[in-house]
Amino acid sequence: MPLIEMRTATITEKGQIAIPKDVRKKGFATGKKVAILAFEDRIEIRPMNQVNEKMMSAFASEKVLAKDWNSKDEEKAWKHL
Fold it and tell me: 44, 37 in Cβ contact below 8 A?
């Protein structure tokens, strides 16, 4: 898929970024799930419908483990990273 636009964003203290409105209109609607792919040299954010089947097992593992990760103790431990 060719690059159609390049924008910048600032990472907040909590590690959050805002996707510019005109970029969101290209397939990142409010409430839609996205995949965050971390490579050694970049991070990609893709709509879930653009994730191939080979990657789906990683998301299944994330969902299963989220029950243990999403606790107040875990949030406190990771807060300052």
Answer: yes
